[in-house]
Amino acid sequence: MKIHTYLTFDGQCEAAFTFYADCLGGDLELMRMGDSPEAGNMPEEFHERVMHVCLTVGDQLLMASDTCPGMGMPYEGIKGCSVSLQVENVPEAERLYEALSAQGSVQMELQPTFWATRFAMFTDRFGVSWMINCNIDAQMG
């Protein structure tokens, strides 16, 4: 079994995942609601929204979609969870922290802790909460 994170956005999914692909690398696959076989059953105003997107980084997946307000899918924001990145070395932790936290809000700056060589908590500009953790045992880089 694998457990993957699935996020929901309110019309910002494509912008968010283009940004994540730039920061994290990997391959991006995206389907718009207007490209689905069900496009005729939804208002045209939702056709540009994302029905499903998948960012594949190695054997890891980050997935998401946009909501369709007015079609029984109200948007309530992303809350109560974080996407956690376990990184191999300090330079990678620093790079990801700088990229992903840009224009967001930082709850805890990237710093050493008693459990990690580096750890940070922040919310990106799309409202997604992130944690970056670089274990003490990880290569100091």
UniProtKB/TrEMBL annotation:
This is VOC family protein. Coiled coil: none annotated. Residues 2-132 form the Glyoxalase/fosfomycin resistance/dioxygenase domain. It holds the Pfam family Glyoxalase. CDD domains: PhnB_like. It comes from the Bacteria. It comes from Pseudomonas leptonychotis. PANTHER family: PROTEIN YJDN, PROTEIN YJDN-RELATED.
